[in-house]
Amino acid sequence: MMIAGFFENIGHTFLSYLREVGRMVILMIRIVRFSPDIIRNRSLTIGQMMKIGVLSLPLVTVVSMFTGAVASWQAAYQFRGLISLDFLGAAVSAAIFIELSPVLTGLVVAGRVGASIAAELGTMCVTEQIDALESLAIDPVRYLALPRFTAGWITMPLLVIYSNIVAHFGAYLVASFLMDVSTAAFFGSVQRYFLFHNVLSGLVKALVFGGGTALVGCAVGFSTTGGAEGVGKSTIRAFVYSSAFILISDYILATFLF
Amino acid sequence: MIEIEHIEKSFQGKTALRDISLSIPEKQTMVIVGCSGCGKTVLLRSIIGLVKPERGRILVNGRDVTAMRRKELFEIRKQFGMLFQGAALFDSMTVEENIALPLREHTKLNPAQVRQKVSEKLKLVGLSSIGDKKPSELSGGMKKRVGLARALIMDPKYMLFDEPTTGLDPIMSDAINRLILNTQQQLNITSIVVTHDLKSAFTVGNRIAMICEGVVIFSDSVEAFQNSDHPVVRQFIEGRSGPREEK
Fold it and tell me: What is the DSSP code string of A94-148?
């Protein structure tokens, strides 16, 4: 009996995850159907870009600066005795462009923005504001989800470009002041081994992560029930799902892009 | 005219509405009363397609709301205004933005015309100079009034009121009742009011329907309701607790 209950629980959990994925796919289809309304929604989209992009800048700055610094430190540790530190810039730069900036910026945005979208829409759900929109003949998917989704996929690559710059600066500071790597050696190696494909791959990842995070936030927010407790649960769910989405899609994209 | 025919709806196996049929004549106010949780709000929400019944039809001017595609449903919703129980004002917007939203979305009025219509509706509900305030700065009664102004902004043919006086003090409840009555008389609209507040029901209603356990047990004029000898109606009017009396 206990074993049957165990498998039943696994089945229920699996089915509930499938339902969540289904909800997200359906929401995605509905958002795409409303895509001709992007221009009509431009002021809402710009507002969301401010929230997702501009307000995330302080956090992205701190995270990127230390990401670059740690990458530089760790690479120098692994290079010691094997490879000249003159190659430090090239190694760190590739890691920043391909992986560190897109994934860590994505996770920061998932924590800050994905969860906040879910909390905002979740609160609107439990206080009948979504129903009020419906009753006013305004489609919540067009009015709420489309601007957030659009802002997500436009803003995230911009944040990642910014993160790339800051992370390189962080890496350079560590290399220059703590590893005695000259500025010319550091940036010379960055330039010598620079591949535009690396930057582009990172930006493609950022686009997917940004859209995905906003989509997850909206889908979780729209399905919120159960008052304040439900909103709290949705916030956690949005962060967990969007983080999982970023890490899983990062692997899938890596297999396609490299 | 709104005709509700044999509506049935359940949630996770629990029946909310069971074979409900009602007819709401034009330019009249139908009040739907009943105990908490008897399915009144579900019925109200079904009328504008916020809830989809499992069986039955809801005809608005002869067109079945339950069978409409989403686009058609949105068109028909433009003929409705709905005041929600908690007013459901948008937190992120000011009072003026809340009321102006349907105009901005559905009309091509310029900002000056929008502002003028908003101030007309605010005046109609007895409020002015609060356009810049956020909903969090308003009292419960003010929120309901703003909700009513927003519901009326598109000059709807039909108004739906979900528990308009719940949570308000008796004076504010009376003010809201008078407001419903005045708007009904001034704008000549068809209204459906869901409430369990009998004073409100008797003030604003032309007709009353009573729902009990998902079934309409009474539907007639206000006077007939007050004089009804139906045991459940009597129990409800007299506010007696205890087991529900046999019909």
Answer: HHIIIIIHHHHHHHHHIIIIIHHHHHHHHHHHHTTHHHHHHHTT--HIIIIIHHH
Largest CA distance in chain A: 70
Number of domains within chain A: 1
- What is the domain range of residue A232? 2-257
Task: Write out residues 78-97 of B within 8 Å (CB-CB) of A.
Answer: 78, 80-82, 84-86, 88-92
**pLDDT class for A1, splitting at 50, 70, 90?**
low
C-alpha–C-alpha distance, residues A108 and A31, integer Å? 24
Compare all CA atoms of chain B with the CA of A142 and give the residue at the minimum distance: B105
- Quote the Cα angle for B122-B126-B130, to 5°: 55
What's the token pair of residue A205? 């990842």
Angstrom CA distances, B11 to B7, B8, B17, B54, B101, stand at 14, 11, 10, 10, 32
Q: Residue A172: how many CB atoms within 10 A of its CB?
A: 22
* Residue A153 three-state SS: helix
CA distance to A19, A68, B209, B219, per residue, from B225 (Å): 47, 76, 8, 8
Question: Where residue B247 falls among pLDDT bands split at 50, 70, 90?
Answer: very low
The interface predicted TM-score (ipTM) is: 0.90
pLDDT tens figures, B61-93: 889 999 999 999 999 999 999 999 999 999 999
Those residues whose C-beta lies under 8 Å from the C-beta of residue A48, and which sit 6 or more positions away, are A147, A148, A150, A151, A152
What is the SS3 assignment for A167-229? Answer: HHHHHHHHHHHHCCCCHHHHHHHHHHCCCHHHHHHHHHHHHHHHHHHHHHHHHHHHCCCCHHH
| CA dist list (Å): A172 to A78, A112, A178, B78 | 17, 27, 10, 60
Determine contact, residues A110/A117, Cβ cutoff 8 Å. no
CA distance, residue B104 to nearest chain A CA (Å): 11
B169-193 residues labelled b (16+ CB within 10 A) or e (exposed): eeebbebbbebbeebbeebebbbbb
* Chain A residue numbers touching B166 (CB-CB < 8 A): none
pLDDT band, residue B56 (cuts 50/70/90): very high
Q: Are B56 and B3 in contact (CB under 8 A)?
A: no
